[in-house]
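Batch 3, record 17
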Amino acid sequence: MVIEHPEPIRAANHASYNEEKMGKSTLFESSRVLVGLNAFEAGQEHKLHAHAGMDKIYQVIEGNGVLLREDGEDELEEGMTVVVPEGVPHGIRNPGDGRLLVLAILAPGPSAA
Amino acid sequence: MVIEHPEPIRAANHASYNEEKMGKSTLFESSRVLVGLNAFEAGQEHKLHAHAGMDKIYQVIEGNGVLLREDGEDELEEGMTVVVPEGVPHGIRNPGDGRLLVLAILAPGPSAA
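Prediction for the assembled complex:
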């Protein structure tokens, strides 16, 4: 589905859920930024990882989950925002019964590396 | 209110509404990205403008409004996402009776210019 930026979209219409593992889709990519979606079926997880030189922003679009940090976990509810500065370990788990969809923005875009 | 990133936050708790003009607040800033909030009281507008060399992402946190484009307008509803590639004119108007809060992400951050 091609998006004619800057048209307003419902991110959920562009989600790519995958029974095998967390699904990814891309809304926009440039050298400056990657705007994507991470789609978690119940029980799926994106384990703890870090991005050198890239800041990340998560925005929970639908569902609830858990933010994984190096030293603990936080509840992640629909509508919440998370800023992950470069180099800081982070991950997401969907322990619930329903789906979890998260907007994931990386700056700069990985293609700039 | 200091945010200990990467703690999950409710962006609305960090909004800065201003009776005089659109209110701005900053959630995070680096050379790579600026994560801020644009808070519109009823009737307020951020008129058409563009950012050379910076991509922008809007995420509507609460309320409804109108996305201004060079050649028209689009409805902007709670939960919607907009990607504005660098150089593309854009703005936001809150024509409604209620407040409108929009997460506004710029990459790279203006401080990198």
